[in-house]
Amino acid sequence: MSSIRNSRTRLLTAAATGVLAALSLTACNDGSGVRKESAATNDSATASTSAATSSGSSSHDDARTAPAGSQRTDHTPERKTLMASGKSRTDTVGKAVTCQGSNTKTVAALLNRPVNHMLLTVTNTGSRTCYLYGYPAVRFGEAQSVPPVIEASQPQAVVTLEPGESGYASVSLSATDGSGAHGRTEKSLAVYFHGPSGNESVGAAAHPALPAKGVYIDDSLDVTYWQQSMDDAVRW
Predict the structure, then answer these.
(1) Which end of the chain has the least Cβ crowding within 10 Å, N or C?
(2) pTM of the model
């Protein structure tokens, strides 16, 4: 009985050895087997790593080439700073105001053409946009009234001055043919500014300097509406 068991054991061992030998031979003949499988595994890992690297590089490139702000939300510190700055600028500039003596500088200059004319230049010296409503209410010397406006000179829109910008009006001082009555020489000038209604003076008046010898005026004195350009002001 023991002899039969030993024979079976030897037979099974021999069969297993044969199978292993066959497998080993097959692996050697085609150069694959474990080594080929390992190489395939390495190739797969390399491809995965390359794809991941490429994907990461693409993401970085997209971030570099994307329009500013497209990769950020309004919650980032930089964006919050910009938004805060914009609000601060808006608060500083505020709403537009009426141009008047305290936020503008007015210069009066005699013109060669048209003759007997003076040009008023008002420059916004404030930090806010201002509106030049209507026309300048000019008062020479101790006059009790202001001269009329040339209605045909009214512009289509209110003159708007950003900080640093200028508006213009011209003053016809006297009749060129000498027909004006009550001619006289005046050495001082006050310029008053109208509000939105156009019927009242607002704020401080401007007091531009006149030539030392003064200017000659008569009862034909009149003024234009405020104009956005100098050319429009001197047409009248």
Answers:
(1) N
(2) 0.61
